[in-house]
Amino acid sequence: MALNVISNFAANVALRHLTETDMKMTDSLAKLSAGTRVISAKDDAASMAIGSRLAAEVNALTQARVNSGQAVSMLQVADGAMARANDILLRMKTLAVQAGSGQLSGTERGMLNAEYQQLVSEIDRLAEDTEFNGVTLVDGGLALDLNTAASNFTPAYGVASITFRGSYDITAATGSTSADISYATTGTFTLTHNGSTYSGSLASDTNDGSAMSNGTVVTLVTGGSDNNKIDLAINTAFDVDAAIATGTIGLSGAAQSTFTYKVGTGTSTTADEITVSLDGINATALGLTGSDITAATTADTASTLITNAIDQLNINRATIGASLNRLEFAAANIATTLENTEAARSNLLDLDIAAEMSNFTSKQILQQAGVAMLAQANETPQTLLRLFQ
Predict the structure, then answer these.
(1) Which residues contact 75 (CB under 8 A, 6 or more apart)?
(2) CA-to-CA distance for 116 and 112, rounded, in angstroms?
(3) How far apart are CA 317 and CA 87, in angstroms?
(4) 40, 206, 212, 220: which could join 230 in a potential S-S bond, CB 3.0 to 4.6 Å?
């Protein structure tokens, strides 16, 4: 190779190698600082795609573990309320047995009954106030919408739809029951269900019912309480000129609250979701409404009702216990899957720090050597110019 001062080929070669070394050194430094061997798709496109999917799976599993934990917490709150309700029932059982004894007078039984009724009210309060994240758990108060077409309450009676709001003892042994409804020409509706009577009328209604029109909604309330309501929507088939004979409405549904928790990363309702149902524990749901211990006979009846309520409560708690065990196993499975998924992602993307540090050091040495060689190559033209001196 000829020596010249116009084109410094040696310096150009040294500069090219120095630039390449500097780029590799920069990539190595980026991997070391990020702790991963794949910074961009140019490093390993396939591994980057797989790693991205695994990262999404890890995030989803982490949230699923949180969901299962929340479900466990909710069930523990519900179980705690049922435990307190069981304590109340035990005291009520004691009072009922005491009131059934023949040596007590009516006055003394009245004293016992006063406490008994307070305990019944406390069960209702406990059921209504037991909440998790603002949602009541064991009040048994699901809203049930019933279309008359699904029942034997025919449209000819003039009721388009029926909506139940509040706490109702809808659940029977078969999971369904019925109610009777009637309308009088005085403008009063009456619905009888499980021994309770719900009544309502239109303030503007006249004796001939002329105020009734399509779309009118009549609210039926029981016992002067606004907690339990039934809404009847009137349709054009309503006969305003005749008192309607009693018609039977088929009711279906359950006085329970249902919660579905996502404990998987997919969309399957069987593999990725767990549904938990909580039965109501209010006095109506436990069959205690209307019971008293003012006489020996009613005390014996109340004692039987309380025994049945305790059995029902134990069944409810057993169901919660089964759900808790399932959720704990689900949480353990999520934790195992999460651990293995994180390990797979780590094996795929994590950087071998020792190997990369060795690579970075070698590039650093090459960079230093390249700088020295470039400086030496740049000195060559100056050396040639000294020949003219």
Answers:
(1) 276, 278, 320, 323, 324, 327
(2) 6
(3) 13
(4) 220
According to the per-residue pLDDT averaged within each range, which of 8-12, 145-149, 208-212, 292-296 is highest?
Answer: 292-296
Residue that the structure tokens 């190997």 belong to: 355
CB 124 within 8 A of CB 282: yes
Round to whole Å and give the CA distance between 67 and 260: 10
| 43 within some domain | no
3-state helix, strand, coil in the chain (%, to 5): 50, 20, 30
| Residues in Cβ contact with 295 at an 8 Å cutoff, skipping those fewer than 6 apart | 106, 109
Residues 164-175 pLDDT 10s: 554 444 333 233
With the CA atoms of 290, 193, 230 and 118 taken in that order, what torsion angle do they form, in degrees rounded to the nearest 10?
10
Q: Do 26 and 65 belong to one domain?
A: no
Q: What is the mean pLDDT of the chain?
A: 75
- DSSP character string of 364-381: HHHHHHHHHHHHHHHHHH
Instruction: Give the up-direction half-sphere exposure of residue 344: CA atoms within 13 A in the CB hemisphere.
Output: 17
Whether this model's pTM surpasses 0.70: no
Q: Is the dihedral of CA 108, 110, 111, 115 positive or negative?
A: positive
Looking at the structure of the chain, the number of domains it has is 3
Q: Is residue 149 part of a domain?
A: yes
DSSP assignment, residue 275?
A: E
* CA distance between the termini of the chain: 23
| Domain span at 60 | 55-133+265-341
Residues 170 and 127 in one domain: no
Q: Which residues contact residue 105 at a Cβ distance below 8 angstroms, ignoring those fewer than 6 apart?
A: none
Question: Which tokens belong to 226?
Answer: 């606004």
Alpha carbon 7 to its chain's center:
76
